[in-house]
């Protein structure tokens, strides 16, 4: 696995390949810290009435997973505070390996978009 500034090599790997991989390891940062956010985007909706989801009730474990996920999104720059009148509920679904995955239910908003 390549991570920023580190490299894991097998003992029988070619030393030349290991050297090259060490030189480019930062290109394989699994969690980039610089995020490009200057992409303008608009959704054309069939109504001006915002969709607003009521807050769901989550189990203590789901709440912990959500808090951890949101904290990670804020720290990485993927999320920021918002005062938008639109909202959508997060859901927690299992990945193939059984670990939790946080997804957002945008189905109510999708129903209002032009196709």
TrEMBL record:
Q: What InterPro entries does this protein map onto?
A: DNA/RNA_pol_sf, RNA-dir_DNA_polymerase
The UniProt entry, under SUPFAM superfamilies, shows: DNA/RNA polymerases
Under PANTHER family, the record lists: REVERSE TRANSCRIPTASE DOMAIN-CONTAINING PROTEIN, TRANSPOSON TY3-I GAG-POL POLYPROTEIN
Q: What is this protein called?
A: Retrovirus-related Pol polyprotein from transposon opus
User: From which source organism is this entry?
Assistant: Smittium culicis
Which lineage ranks, top first, belong to the organism behind this chain?
Eukaryota, Fungi, Fungi incertae sedis, Zoopagomycota, Kickxellomycotina
């Amino acid at each position: 696995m390549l991570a920023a500034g580190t490299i894991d090599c097998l003992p029988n790997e070619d030393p030349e390949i290991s050297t090259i991989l060490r030189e480019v390891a930062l290109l394989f940062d699994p969690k980039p810290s610089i995020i490009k956010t200057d992409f303008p985007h608009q959704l054309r909706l069939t109504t001006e009435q915002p969709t607003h989801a009521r807050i769901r009730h989550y189990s203590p474990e789901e709440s912990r997973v959500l808090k951890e996920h949101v904290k990670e999104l804020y720290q990485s720059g993927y999320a920021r505070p918002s005062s938008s009148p639109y909202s959508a509920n997060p859901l927690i679904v299992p990945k193939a390996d059984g670990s939790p995955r946080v997804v957002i239910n945008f189905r109510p908003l999708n129903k209002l978009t032009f196709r």
